[in-house]
Fold this sequence. Notes:
Blueprint: E1 33-37, E2 40-44, H1 48-72, H2 84-87, H3 89-117, H4 129-142, H5 157-183, H6 190-194, H7 198-202, H8 206-238, H9 242-248, E3 250-254
Antiparallel strand pairs: 1-2, 2-3
Amino acid sequence: MGAPKLPTQTPGQFPENPVINSENSFHPERPIVYKQIKNEVRAYVWELPVRIFHWLNMLAIFVLMGTGIYIGKPFASAGIPEEAYYSNLMGWMRYIHFFAAFLFVINLIFRLYWVAIGNKFATSNPLRWIFWKEVFETVKYYLFLKNKKPHYVGHNPLAQLSYWIFIGLGSWIVMLTGFYLYFEPQPESFWAKLFVWVPYLFGGDSYTIRSWHHIAAWGFMLFTLIHVYMAFRDDYLERNGSISSMITGYKTTTNKSVGEKNEK
Length: 264
């Protein structure tokens, strides 16, 4: 099955005959919108809802990590020795953790909705041969091996794959295990019964489910460190505005990446 034909050129949109790769051959009906700047272009990559999701997700994850570490191993207590009832520090940590968890879930549901109506950079499809071929080429690129990695305006396939693993699979693990643990003290409640099947999926007992929750949480921490490093690295090496793009939505890219020819 051949690559889909790309749309014809229209002012400020994805022009005709760019170099075909996994990015521009995906959802050709969602053209790249850009502004011409001398021999470069400013492509509108991250739409406002995607940027809002990104920053809310960052806030929720940091709050969940901080409160989750405290809940798992309390490292502080009330300054004045007294009944736990008065300070209720652990209680407040749990309340904040639960609030951030619901924010995380609602934010993710909204992001899934935006996959259907956003631009081509709002979605990804790993079920394509060209995607995995370019994942392999991108891995070779980062290992300083000879490669045929194309230039991408948005995320490269390896970055997209990491989001599928951590933000996709990882989110489902922390949400399912988290909701089960949240409703576990009320086994007869309606909400607890909705998640009664979770133990069969993750090992059958509360300790194992809690372990899965912790492992996925530490996976998010690892992902966050790598994500921040790679964003700064990409911004510095390619001078494409990766960092500022999550505020403005625009990335600087080459004319060639959107099919334009450089001015002589």
